[in-house]
Amino acid sequence: MIRKTIFAATAAALVLAACQPFEDEGITLPGGPTAAFDHSFVVRADGTTDSNRVVLRSEAPDGFLHFWDFGNGLTSTLSADTAYYPQAGTYEIVYNVYNSGGSAEASVEVVIENTLELPCEGTLALLTGCDNQKTWFWSQEGGAISVGPVPYATEWYSSPPSGLVDEQYDDSYQFTFEGDYIYNSSGGTVNPFEGYIVSALEIPELTYFFSEGTGTSGEDQIILPSCWFMGVWDSGPAYDIVEITEDRLVLHAPIQNGDCTAGDGYFTLTFIAP
């Protein structure tokens, strides 16, 4: 197969790559797609601009598979979607498109100038405790850890009542209203990448952001830094808040591989705040 990579600079700083057709014994496969997309801030119904939400639309009509990395811990496989950035900063959006002739990639950086100041109420208040800091621990109920092939499924595994190990039950998790994520492993974390042995884990200062309505089914989300997790090491870094009360938290998250890429399957995780 002969492959040719084409790079072109645009005003949006897009990087493009594509494949040439493959020809052998009279058989010609179609050429690879052209990775191109449009991006713009959301315009509200009253005509004002929402500068924390970016609308993304593929302009690759010959692509049949799409993958976006929004640069904020979230991804999408839709041809058009909206990325949400509640915190100020520079984010790189990477778009990959595929067809029968190959694949191509494009990227652009977006600058978010303002951090949203959310009031401590509703889901955020239940998660953090606002001024009365809340601490979450594993629930001892059956199914505290469940795993399945699709979101919310549990057929691969469901933990029995009190079925976790002591090194999991003594872990604690806090989310401050100011945006800090505090994970206390009490000296050891169950390591699924080393045969589920208990390993020491150096935990730096971590942050999170609370994302409203961006979950799998429109839930609010907890977004952790890349490669980090809550509960089980091979989950995250984005967690849908499926259920939350004053003392119960149910999260849904994709499996996360050891190299921090998304794996196959999904966790459902249950915590309590005594």
Cα(first) to Cα(last) distance is 61 Å
Spatial extent as radius of gyration: 21 Å
Helix and strand content put the structural class at mainly beta
Tally the helices: what do you get?
2
CATH class of the largest domain: Mainly Beta
Oligomer: single chain
Q: Indicate the mean pLDDT.
A: 87
Count the E strands. 22
Number of domains: 2
Q: Secondary-structure element sequence? A: EEEEEEEEEHEEEHEEEEEEEEEE
Description:
By secondary structure, the chain is mainly beta. It is built from 2 helices and 22 strands. The strands form 6 sheets. Strands 10, 11, 12, 18, 19, 20, 21 and 22 form an 8-stranded antiparallel beta sheet that branches. Strand 20 (238-244) and strand 21 (248-256) form a beta hairpin. The chain is globular, with a radius of gyration of 21 Å.
Record the SSE blueprint:
Layout lengths: L22 E2 L2 E2 L8 E7 L5 E10 L6 E5 L5 E2 L3 E5 L4 E11 L2 E11 L9 H7 L8 E2 L6 E4 L8 E2 L7 H4 L2 E4 L4 E5 L4 E3 L5 E3 L6 E2 L1 E3 L9 E3 L14 E7 L3 E9 L5 E11 L2
Antiparallel strand pairs: 1-2, 3-4, 4-7, 5-6, 5-8, 8-9, 10-22, 11-12, 11-22, 13-14, 14-17, 15-16, 18-19, 19-20, 20-21, 21-22
